[in-house]
Design goal:
By secondary structure, this protein is α+β, with helices and mostly antiparallel strands. Helix content is 24%, strand content 36%. The chain has helices at residues 2-5, 10-26, 82-97, 130-145, 215-227, 246-259, 262-266, 327-332, 356-363, 411-416, and strands at residues 31-47, 50-68, 71-77, 151-170, 175-193, 196-206, 238-244, 287-289, 312-316, 319-320, 347-348, 366-373, 383-394, 397-410, 418-421, 431-432, 436-444. It has a six-stranded antiparallel sheet with strand order 3-2-1-4-5-6. Helix 4 (130-145) packs parallel to helix 5 (215-227). The chain is globular, with a radius of gyration of 24 Å. The termini are far apart. The model has no long low-confidence stretch (mean pLDDT 96).
């Protein structure tokens, strides 16, 4: 099926990859790797019922990295012609000749390369005529606008479908690749009351269109989230429990991933430096990496260097078991690649048993955070300070919306101060986690 939808067949991409490696070796490279890819997609946005944009994208590319001993050069092109491939390889070789030697440069350890590549069910093309895409975007936006008369403006409803395929190959004999798909429907609307406006949104995304919620359900959620923010108030500065709603809680796990990833570790710019084997979360917290989930948005049998991925416990009983390393950072740290060149693969953070309502009751009185603003994180110290909006909670019940506050703490303390993890898991990205309740943070307001 994929062979008919792309400009080039999978076999043609493999032939191109093999040709690039041949050119690199003929030019004197002691080792080389290449990725050949192509993709296409369609995005339609409707605003106030009228079509605002229809976008089509189609791209392709070849990237080649060559090594002259331990000198590295990289170049890329979007031209698949023989002449362009030759020039690209020549440029990569020229760059390598003028690059300083780096004793950590080079291809992945041959013993770590993936053998068999299982089918992870990542490719589900969506035959979506533009007329149907427009209908879905309209239905999503209309459902949001119908929630409440106070919703009087819209940033639009959007339907998007993307398909791509790639082949990665290197001179160690590894060659692998496959097609993937990713589809989404989203909506953002604006509500107004007493001269004050609030905006919110919702979306869904999946490998297969049938795995997404209906457009009307997405739109209704966007409308409900917008209306509930009306008549927001500020808070006085205080210390209190903070509950990060599931989509926001995913960002806390992303910060953890960054802190224990190779680049920050070998540069000694992480607040979790030398934490391997140490307790970084409470004993009830587990973080599992599961690369082989069918249709997973971050599933992969091998990483960007061909290294085999594997199921593993990154955090077990609160103790850090492993880092996120590619080959270069692993060598810098005198360790082995963990198959994470390019990022993490489907991190699962199991719930502690409570649903969202139970988390509110457990918090008692505190701040529910549903939006964060700014980028106030110091990765070296772990100091964390972000603008926030959400809801004030008393006796386990939402009392009123809150805006223009700042939540602050230190991520080390925040991670260790986790009280519970909700069962309201969001599975729209590479990290699957429910809402996270933290024992105490500073909320700065009036």
């Amino acid at each position: 099926m994929s062979e008919q939808r792309f400009s080039s067949s999978g076999a043609a991409l493999r032939d191109l990859a093999a040709r690039v490696l041949e050119l690199a070796q003929a030019g004197g490279a002691s080792a080389a790797e290449t990725e050949v890819s192509e993709g296409f997609g369609q995005t339609v946005t409707v605003r106030k019922g009228e079509v605002e944009t229809i976008e089509y994208n189609k791209d392709k590319g070849v990237g080649v990295t060559v090594y002259l001993g331990q000198r590295r050069g990289h170049a890329s092109t979007s031209d698949f012609s023989a002449d362009a491939l030759g020039r690209t390889v020549e440029k990569a070789l020229a760059i390598a000749r003028y690059t300083a030697e780096d004793d950590c440069a080079g291809l992945a350890d041959p013993a770590l390369l993936a053998g068999e590549v299982p089918d992870l069910d990542l490719y589900h093309p969506w035959d979506l005529p533009v007329e149907h895409a427009i209908e879905l975007a309209r239905a999503c936006e209309a459902a949001a606008l119908a929630v409440d008369a106070r919703i009087n403006n819209s940033e639009g409803g959007t339907t998007s479908t993307q398909e791509s395929q790639f082949v990665y190959a290197n001179t160690l004999g590894f060659m692998g690749g496959y097609p993937t798909s990713r589809h989404s429907v989203s909506c953002a609307v604006i509500a107004e009351e007493n001269g004050a406006m609030q905006r919110d949104y919702w979306y869904d995304t999946a490998r297969a269109a049938g795995d997404m919620a209906a457009a009307e359900v997405i739109g209704r959620r966007a409308g409900e989230r917008t209306v509930r923010r009306l008549n927001a108030r500020r808070l006085g500065t205080r210390q209190c429990p903070v509950l990060f709603e599931a989509p926001i809680a995913s960002g806390l796990i992303a910060s953890f991933v960054s802190a224990v990833s190779g680049g920050h570790l070998y540069r000694k710019s992480s607040f979790l430096l030398d934490s391997l084997g140490s307790r970084v979360f409470p004993e009830f917290v587990q973080i599992q990496e599961r690369p082989f989930l069918p249709r997973g948005l971050a599933s992969a049998a091998f990483d960007n260097e061909g290294v085999a991925t594997r199921d593993r416990d990154v955090v077990k009983d609160g103790v850090l078991q492993g880092y996120f390393l590619g080959s270069y950072s692993a060598r810098k740290l005198k360790m082995r690649s963990t198959g994470n060149a390019g990022g993490n693969h489907n991190l699962i953070v199991p719930a502690t048993g409570e649903d969202f309502a139970a988390l509110l009751r457990r918090m008692g009185s505190g701040l529910l955070v549903t939006e964060l603003l700014g980028h106030g994180l110091n990765m070296v110290t772990g100091d964390y300070s972000r603008g926030a909006a959400g809801f004030w909670v008393e006796n386990g019940e939402i009392v009123h919306p809150v805006e223009e506050v700042t939540v602050a703490g230190n991520l080390k303390d925040m991670f260790l101060g986790i009280q519970a993890i909700g069962s309201d898991v969001e599975a729209r990205g590479s990290r699957r986690v429910g809402s996270i309740l933290i024992e105490r943070m500073t909320v700065a307001g009036e």
